[in-house]
Amino acid sequence: MPTIDVNGTVLYYERIGQGPSVLFVHGLCGDADGFADQAGRLSDRYTCVRYDRRGHARSGRGDAPITRSLHADDAAALVEALDLAPCLLVGSSGGASIAVEVALRHGHLLRGVALSEPPLFSLDPEAGQAAMGEIGPRVEQALSAGGPAAAIDAFLSHVCPGLWSILDEEGKDRYRANAEIGLTDLRAPSVDITAEDLAGLTLPALVVTGERSHPSHLSVAHRLVAAWPEARLVELEQSGHVTYAERPDDFARALAAFAAGLGTDARGGTTGRFDVASADGTSLAVWVEGDGPALVMVHGSIADHTTFDPFVEVLAEDLTTYRMDRRGFGASGDGAAYSIERDFEDVAAVVDAVAARTGGPVALWGHSYGASCAMGGAALTDGVHHLVLYEPSLGLAYPPGSIERIEAALAVGDRDAAVVEVLAGILEMTHDEIEAMRASPLWPVRLAAAHTVPRECRAEEGWVYEPGRFDGVTAPTLFLAGSESVPEVVKATAAAAAAIPHAEVRVLDGHGHLAHKTDPALVAAIVREFLAS
Fold first, then answer.
1. Burial class (CB in 10 A: 0-12, 13-18, 19+), 173
2. Are 521 and 314 in contact (CB under 8 A)?
3. What do you get for the CA distance between the two ends of the chain, in Å?
4. Taking a C-beta distance cutoff of 8 angstroms, is the pair 483, 510 a contact?
5. Cα–Cα nearest to 383, from 467, 470, 304, 294
6. In whole angstroms, how far apart are CA 476 and each of 166, 329, 366, 386, 479?
7. CA angle 88-94-95, nearest 5°?
8. H helices present in 360-430, as ranges
9. Is the pTM of this model over 0.85?
10. CA distance 73 to 291
11. What is the rounded distance in angstroms from the CA atom of residue 348 to the CA atom of residue 382?
């Protein structure tokens, strides 16, 4: 049984895999086994370490009074003792609160944190009081009637009904066995972390929450993301408080995508993130992965940089991809007033920043609305040596009333309906295609970006090509179009190609608007061939 001495106690841990390190921190009454499934999913690319927190299961308790700060010091000591730095720290519930404290006090040991619903009620005291007003009497009554195990039953069945419903009695007994230390954690003073504390953090953070969670947990998650400069939120449908157990596939995909943007990947190529200031001061996040010449990538509507994940898996074998989050998406900021010209400036700023880092002009790729932005950005900089544009959308004519329906759905808070209107009413996707997208971990990302849809639709529909507008594009330019794309999209692509002298157009037979997703190897081969020309 592997153990290690830290801070006056002995901690049990398990270690599998190879590559950059990930440390998992369990929540109330849990143990290392809770994250076994998630660690197994990452172990082909990462060194994954799980441990029993002090006082839990196979770890010692030690003589010092147990506090969350001591748990945080234990996690930091474990990172140092096992030579895991710089480490991605993953925590759930109370373990996520511990991870936040590690980030604040031992941030030099980390390269990022993934947090599933930390109960940091100091960010929303009213919500915290309401939550404890519900659970406190239940726990005390159960404790008086049945002892510590009954008290933990009462707590977890109320706070984590999704988890409690899928566990068998043996699984529940694992939590009950840690009842005494669980009550100690519950009675410990709450961590006093403020928005001002979080504002100084520079580490990337992924905050995961479940749509069915208690309103207090949802409130804290949103406030955490708002206060943490480098944080992004993923909300999992049909999940409650214990996201990694209730929606393991979705959690794993979100965690893997986040981890891929940090540190060094298993291929030995470059990965990471940096930020670029646009002309109006908006901060733009740029995510780096791969090994080879630079390719800047610009995503389309209702997505962020993660929409290119399958495509980048193929490209990153011999290209370094620089995926930007456009303004209003992902980890990037947004301006007070929008026009597509701001997106043009954003792309030019990222291209110039990457060119400065790599020592010369770069290749530029854009898809859909992102292709429009890439085309406009390429006209503002001499830092592009090849330009690939997949179905840009300027001048796109929308079905009558479609934009108004999107705006009406957003006005009543129905982001799902707004996104479906785009997919079905504009892109003419089938029910099965939409349901497949809904099952993807990117669906919460699309919902989060739904508010940007009307402004981009109106920018496209109101666009008129003016003579000479894109004369600044001097790089060889390749347009891609799907043979199965809807006629209005094909027409918009043709208009864009006519605006750039000597542009080449290539039709992807049998494909529509998303060939880089449905056949990434094909599109990657075309891109490589063009860049080599």
1. exposed
2. yes
3. 58
4. yes
5. 294
6. 56, 29, 14, 5, 10
7. 25
8. 369-378, 402-411, 415-420
9. no
10. 36
11. 9
Torsion of the alpha carbons at 371, 372, 378 and 381, rounded to the nearest 10: -130
Q: Using alpha carbons, list the distances in angstroms from residue 49 to 18, 106, 197.
A: 10, 18, 28
Beta carbons of 518 and 524 less than 8 angstroms apart: no
Torsions phi, psi of 223, nearest 5?
A: -70, -35
- Both tokens assigned to 180: 């005494």
Positive or negative, the CA dihedral 84, 88, 93, 94 is: positive
Q: What is the DSSP letter of 360?
A: S
434: which 2 tokens? 């939409």
329-346 burial code (b ≥16 CB/10 A, e <16):
bbbbbeeeebebebbbbb
Report the chain (533 residues): mean pLDDT per 10 consecutive residues: 94 92 96 96 90 97 93 96 93 97 92 95 91 91 94 94 93 95 86 88 91 92 90 90 95 86 49 82 88 93 87 91 92 87 97 88 97 98 97 90 90 89 81 84 76 90 92 96 93 95 95 94 97 91
Q: What phi and psi, each to the nearest 5 degrees, are found at residue 166? A: -100, -10
3-state DSSP percent of the chain in helix, strand and coil, to 5: 45, 20, 35
Residue linked to tokens 């959690």: 251
Half-sphere exposure of 257 (CA within 13 A, CB side): 27
Contact indicator for 73, 104 with CB cutoff of 8 Å: no
3-state SS assignment for residue 143: helix
Determine the Cα–Cα distance for residues 382 and 373; give it in Å rounded to an integer: 16
CA distance 90 to 360: 37
The β-bridge partners of 275 are 285
CA 206/CA 223 separation, integer angstroms: 13
Q: Which of 291, 514, 310 lies closest to 423 in space, CA to CA?
A: 514
